[in-house]
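User: Show me a protein chain along with its predicted structure.
Assistant: Here is one chain, sequence first, then structure tokens.
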Amino acid sequence: MFANGFLNNIEKTSMTKTYKMPLLLAFYNHGNINLKVDEEMIFQSFSEFYTKPSNAVDLMRHGSTKNYKDFNKKDYLRISENPIKALLNSAEDFFYRDRLYFCLNDDLGESIKNSIFIAHLKDIIDYRTRRFYKERLEKLEK
């Protein structure tokens, strides 16, 4: 049940930018889910996510991130702070922070080994990313 609540929360989380998605992908870790992610893992995930031109559109729209191609680790970690704070506030049952890591609740420990849970998490991340761009495009067309 806890895992279902987590997936439901991720599916419904509010998004004004795509920043939560690469953060969640750091946990997803190409299907080998981590309960804890450190700065290096977050940086790698953000860097990989925004290398895709369709995702980079979100960075190009804003003055503070339009030079994303020159971003280093510090820059990506700076933009990761907003989604970390947002998830800590809106999903405190599922996320916490310790000194060196951003963490998933340990109650997800068994679920992260379940192939159905893993596939569902990836589907939600992909769906939310696509839906974000579709909704933004619809707003621009109005």
